Amino acid sequence: MIDRFEIIGHDSPRPDAERIIFCDGTGGGIFQPETDLELSHWRPNKTPTEYRAGTSTEVCLRFLDNPRPGSWTAAVNNHVDVDGILSVYVLVHSQHALAHRQTIIQAAEIGDFWGWGEAPAQRVFQGVTRLMNSGEGRVVYDEAFKRIPALIDGTDAEIPEIDEALEPLRRGVELVEGGTIKRSLISEKLAHYVVPISVAGDDDERASYSPEFNEAISEKAGLWPQVRAWWDAERACLVSVERKTGWFHDLWFPGYLWADTEGLWQVPGLTYHDGMGSYDLDNQGLVAAFEELQRQESAPGCWGLGGIDVPFGEELQERFPLGGRFLDDEGKPAVSQMSPEIVARALAGVFL
Question: Which of 132, 223, 328, 340 has CB atoms 3.0–4.6 Å from 334's, for a disulfide?
Fold first, then answer.
């Protein structure tokens, strides 16, 4: 649809282009409302209501379904991540993107929302993140655009390595489906995963690992958020991981909450600021549940919750979508003496 695209810095001057579509990254001070269009889920944005969706990639696909009249000079983004790359891809390689719509959307969700995707989407995500980790800027976009078709159809030269790296996702789903990792619903919007030590192993760092935004899949985590999203993309999740002397307990929020999305469940009282760096949490039921867990806890440490004025509340915001956990006095995961059943009961009335 658009022949030209540019990747600019956040403080760069406006490209020499008459009509720009700013996709994923917003236009900010160089956006001209009389000529330009924003197709983004970053806060704040000026995306027209009819195009709003989840990822910016899906926003761009909705634009292709019903484009504004006239021609566009350039597609512009201001950063490198999977959703950003795929958003531009949708506008520049529109025919191929439309033919593989669901795969493209799922790949973006794996990156931006810690979401689930089927095997072709996983390969696109993993392949593109590998490129991101080895290059920057326009070079990454150009190489990704060349390789996306082969990542989807399975003919890319790196597919064997990529598939091997994605094994933790396949294994995680099998462990849950087979009942080794026990999944249950505490309430309509809160799922519970209980991970036995036979799966978690003795490595505390791996058992409590919190993946970064757009982090490539690896063996660093025992249970990736993307696995839980197969069942619980629009639920909070309590994850209880068995240790030799007790349990790690983590509360995870849906990975899309930082973005300006349409039609997805929101945690009551959680309000993100512009960008994705911080949020406020005004959910008295959740706060009260964590206070009760603190009163009952016999192990040294604190039940921390992001978005409120408590020890390590600010640090936990930086670990989103991890929202709360039991911590030691240095802010590291601590072993709780509370059983999974007790923690589940404390949270049972919060997410209804």
Answer: 328
